[in-house]
Q: What sequence folds into this?
């Protein structure tokens, strides 16, 4: 399945896949080499986990937060106000279906694990409980830990887990982002049997995360959670424009600077992780070669004087002031249901010439989310604007959807029919 995050697709046989993965898991533990039949996302995670010192045979995540420390961390966490929504969306149905719903913080510590009591008791035997630290380095390959490591939705099926004790379970997880800064706030996870790694589970979790991020935005805009300081910061502060551009533009107070592609990638990733990002994660997002950390340090040293007076801090790496991005603006519009505004704010894919893995994931996710919102909506003007753009001209499903929205009496229908005929000739569309 490549790096899409999906464990399998409709039509696959999960039992046969489990047998294949069991044999591959055993081969990896015996030889240290990942068999080719393991999807790349999982193979890379196995190697990261082992390199980080995780023991697949005996390792279980540590219980990092206990009793009063756990309660205090929960109470002050930015996801606490939306737990009632998560319970409404997932927990009640999950309990009936024999699944657990977990919410972690931004580094993978589980803050809430909810579901039927017997299943929670079983999960406690592998330390899947509130207060346990399920990052990759401490728990091995698992959906919440790997989703946070990659900053993308992830499914981990049975023997794709690295820790042998966890292989009877399957899980689907997706990061939850701050709707203003794009920083990771935590992770939403569903854990249970084989069915939790089915394709519909990934769609369910992604939809729940989108709803949670929309609720966070609504609470800020309506003042439910107090003054929205990030909005005030955006009005006076830094902004980065990277959509549809070969190099990003950094702006403040009417002044702007054009950045090189590599510096554009760095500043964008730092802007979307306002609370900081480790050097290891930043290197993984930018490079795919063995000397990634060396290359990263050298590039950061060159970036510092370019950014001044915007500072670059370390441990973890972060920008000294908030930097709003046009990508985050599109996401805010989508979360609030402002489809026309989202399309108007989307001049093209994110840094389209970037080959950095982290940027490529962000670019594809944002483009897919805009398209999905259009295909699920009824806004003909927004759909026409997107379809007529350079990135929409060859998008057959978008043009077909536009034809349905316009109706037979629309004066634009002939133009759309003509373009569909062109796509039929050029792409061999049915």
A:
């Amino acid at each position: 399945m490549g790096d899409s995050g999906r464990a399998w697709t409709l039509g696959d046989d999960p039992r046969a896949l489990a047998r294949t993965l069991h044999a591959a898991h055993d081969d990896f533990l015996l030889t240290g080499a990942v068999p080719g039949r393991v999807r790349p996302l999982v193979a890379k995670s196995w190697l990261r986990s082992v390199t980080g010192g995780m023991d697949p045979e005996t390792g279980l995540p540590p219980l990092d937060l206990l009793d009063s420390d756990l309660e205090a961390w929960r109470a002050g966490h930015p996801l606490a106000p939306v737990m009632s929504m998560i319970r409404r969306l997932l927990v009640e149905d999950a309990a009936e279906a024999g699944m657990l719903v977990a919410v972690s913080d931004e580094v993978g510590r589980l803050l809430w694990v909810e579901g039927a009591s017997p299943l929670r008791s079983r999960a406690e035997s592998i330390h899947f409980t509130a207060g346990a630290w399920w990052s990759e380095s401490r728990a091995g390959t698992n959906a919440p830990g790997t989703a946070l490591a990659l900053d993308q939705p992830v499914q981990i099926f049975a023997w794709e887990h690295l820790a042998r004790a966890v292989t009877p379970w399957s899980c689907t997880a997706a990061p939850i982002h701050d709707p203003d800064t794009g920083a990771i706030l935590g992770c939403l996870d569903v854990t249970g049997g084989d069915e939790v790694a089915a394709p519909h589970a990934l769609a369910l979790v992604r939809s729940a995360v989108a709803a949670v991020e929309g609720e966070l935005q609504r609470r800020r805009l309506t003042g439910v959670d107090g003054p929205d300081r990030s909005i005030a910061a955006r009005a006076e502060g830094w902004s980065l424009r990277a959509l549809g551009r070969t190099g990003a533009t950094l702006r403040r107070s009417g002044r702007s600077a054009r950045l090189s592609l590599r510096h554009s990638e760095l500043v964008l990733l730092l802007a979307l992780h306002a609370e900081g990002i480790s050097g290891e994660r930043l290197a993984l997002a930018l490079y795919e070669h063995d000397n990634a950390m060396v290359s990263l340090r050298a590039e950061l040293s060159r970036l510092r004087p370019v950014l001044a007076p915007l500072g670059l801090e370390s441990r973890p790496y972060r920008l000294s002031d908030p930097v709003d991005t046009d990508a985050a603006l599109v996401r805010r519009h989508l979360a609030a249901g402002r489809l026309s505004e989202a399309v108007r704010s989307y001049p093209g894919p994110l840094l389209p010439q970037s080959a950095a893995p982290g940027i490529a994931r962000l670019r594809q996710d944002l483009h897919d989310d805009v398209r999905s919102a259009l295909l699920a909506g009824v806004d003909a003007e927004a759909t026409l604007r997107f379809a007529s753009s350079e990135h929409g001209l060859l998008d057959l499903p978008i043009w077909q959807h536009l034809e349905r929205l316009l109706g037979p009496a629309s004066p634009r229908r002939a133009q759309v029919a003509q373009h569909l005929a062109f796509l039929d000739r050029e792409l061999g569309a049915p």
